[in-house]
Write a structure and sequence with these properties.
By secondary structure, the chain is α+β, with helices and mostly antiparallel strands. The chain has 3 helices and 10 strands, in the order E-E-E-H-E-E-E-E-E-E-E-H-H.
């Protein structure tokens, strides 16, 4: 991840009632070409900046958290503007509310976070061209192989909180 990315950066919804600030660089940015993301976004892919949820600061109205299905079957929680319903980020079941998958397109300057990798390219639209030099994989990726060392260290620091979330989720289902 280039060091030239200055943070914090801000974003929000179309009506500007939901505003947020990413306080630090994301862990990683992936561009997902799976059919689920295509359907959910109404576009050819979804571009997500993965970041610790406590590094996303609300600047205006709190988002409406909406439980929705996911391709894994475990579901996700989408943070939407309660007025215009734009999805600003999601919390997927794997890490729950500990990690936010910020929709890069909701940033005021989305050009600042190009994808670090393209995933699920086996189902990408045939006319989408992956730029040369940007990693791409047919399905999901191995974090250890693609993430920078600093992001892996941050992820390791989250493990205890993620495991606590998962234990609580298992207890709730039981």
């Amino acid at each position: 991840m280039p060091a030239a990315r200055a943070f914090p950066i801000e974003g929000g919804c179309d009506c500007r009632r939901l505003r947020y600030r990413m306080e630090s660089p994301p862990l990683f940015v992936h561009c997902c070409h799976c059919r689920w993301c295509q359907r959910e976004s109404g576009a050819s892919f979804a571009q997500n900046a993965l970041i610790e949820a406590d590094r996303v600061t609300s600047l205006a109205d709190a988002p409406e958290l909406v439980d929705t299905p996911s391709n894994s079957g475990a579901g996700q929680q989408m943070a939407r503007c309660s007025h215009c319903k734009i999805a600003a980020w999601s919390h997927y079941a794997g890490a729950g509310p500990v990690v936010s998958f910020v929709r890069v397109g909701t940033l005021d300057d989305p050009d600042r976070l190009p994808p670090d990798i393209h995933i699920f390219t086996e189902s990408k639209q045939p006319w989408v061209v992956i730029p040369p030099g940007v990693p791409s994989v047919p399905a999901y990726y191995d974090r250890q192989q693609f993430w920078p060392a600093a992001s892996l260290e941050r992820w390791a620091a989250l493990r205890e909180r993620i495991e606590a979330y998962r234990a609580g989720a298992r207890a709730t289902r039981a």
